[in-house]
Amino acid sequence: MKPTRILFVCLGNICRSPTAEAVMRHLVKQRGLDDRIHVDSAGTGGWHAGNPPDARSASVGAKRGIPLSGKARQVTTEDFDDFDFIVAMDRTNRDDLRALAPSLAARNKIHLLRDFSPAGAKDADVPDPYYGGPQGFDQVFDICLQACDGLLASVIQSVPPRATVTP
Ligand code: 4NP
After folding, report:
1. Ligand 1 geometric centre to CA of 133 (Å)
2. Ligand 1 and 16: CB distance under 6 A
3. Distance between CA atoms of residues 71 and 66, nearest Å
4. pLDDT tens by residue, 8-61
C-alpha cells in the first residue's frame, strides 16, 4: 500500500519546516509507522535551496534529541501530486501555496500546522524565528511538537489499519 505523504512548508525551508519534519518523523517512528507515513519539507522561496537546516534550529533539535536533517528545496507544483497533506507553517505560506495549487483537489491538501494543535487558536502562525533571538527557536520546536502530535492523530485516522496477518 502507498504510504501517506506529508510535506511541511515554510518560507526558507531552513528553520520551521525542517523542525516540523524532524519532529513528525520522530513521532511516526515512535509509533512504528515509518513504513506507512513519509515526511518531507520545502520552502515557498528558493534562496536557501541546497542549504542544511539553520544552525540555531539544528542546535535546538540536537538539544532535544531530535536531530534535523536534509537540504532545503523550493516547493513545486508536482508536490501537490506527490503529497497527501501539505502543511503550511504560517498564513503567508498558506496563501503562497494556494496561489501555486494547480487544482481544487490540490488546494484542498493545504493545511495550517497550528490548526492541529489542541491548545492552539484557529488560524495561528508558527512564528518566523529567523531574525529573532534563540528563544524563538525553542518556541518553534515546542509548537511543532504539540501540533505534530495532533496532526499525526488526524493522519492516522486517514491511514487504514494494517491488514491482519493470518497464519
Ligand atoms: P523559515 O525561516 O521560513 O522558517 O525557514 C526563514 C529562513 C530564511 C529567511 C526567512 C525565514 N530569509 O529571509 O532568508
Report:
1. 14
2. yes
3. 16
4. 999 999 999 999 999 999 999 999 999 999 999 999 999 999 999 999 999 999
